[in-house]
Structures are given as C-alpha cells and as structure tokens.
Amino acid sequence: MYVFFNHIHDYFEERSQRFGGDGSIDDKTKNGLIWLAWNRNNFEYFSFFMTEFEDVLSTKRYDSAYWQNRFGQFYLAHKDYNNAIKHNIRPLMDNGGVLMLLLN
User: Which range, 28-37, 57-66, 92-101, is most confident?
Assistant: First the structure.
C-alpha cells in the first residue's frame, strides 16, 4: 500500500518539475482514488485514502449529508463503527437535526 502511495507522490513531484506546480496531489486525483476504492469495495484502500486525503473531505463536494451518509454506510458495512458514527452523525447535526434513516 505504502509503495503505491509513494509512487503517487513521486509522480506528482516529477510532474511538477517538468510542468511546474507545487508537487502536491491534486484534489481530483484524491477524489478519484477515494471513489475508486469505495466503488471497488476495497476497504483497506478506502480507509487509507480517507485518512491520507483528509483535507479533501472538507471540500464542498464531500461536506454534504449525501456523501457523509454514503461514507458512513460504507464504514458500517465493513464494521468500522467509529467512522460510521462519525460520518452519519455529523450531517444530522449540520442539518438542524433533520432525521435520516441511517441504519437500513
């Protein structure tokens, strides 16, 4: 896993040297990797990317109750109850306590 992640970092660093930029992984790539791990039901990679790319999770895209609920449901399906609660409770509080059916 970490070797793969190091390759991503190396790629963006080399790209910045060739074309300019700061060498950081862009948000579109972060979004794509999180989505790909989620879509392929790869909890190990999903959990890793959610931790490594925590900064992108506060963007407008992921700050919605829709995405927080989807993440919460994914964590719940993989029995990561602490993260399931974290992603399912916050949208409820952020939306004035609007009740959503979280645990199907």
Answer: 28-37
H/E element holding 53? none
Task: Please give the span between the terminal C-alpha atoms of the chain, in angstroms, as a whole number.
Answer: 32
Question: Tens of pLDDT along 45-78?
Answer: 999 999 999 898 888 878 788 888 889 999 999 9
Report, in angstroms and rounded to the nearest whole number, the Rg of the chain calculated over CA atoms.
16
CA 60 from centre of chain: 13
Phi, psi of 103 (to 5 degrees): -105, 100
Report whether 38 contacts 46 (CB < 8 A). yes
Q: Which amino acid, residue 39? A: N
Cα–Cα distance measured from residue 65 to residue 34, given in angstroms and rounded to the nearest whole number: 17
Evaluate if pTM is beyond 0.90.
no
Q: How far is CA 64 from the centre of its chain?
A: 13
13 HSE (CA, 13 A, CB side):
6
The answer to whether the CB of 45 falls within 8 A of the CB of 39 is no
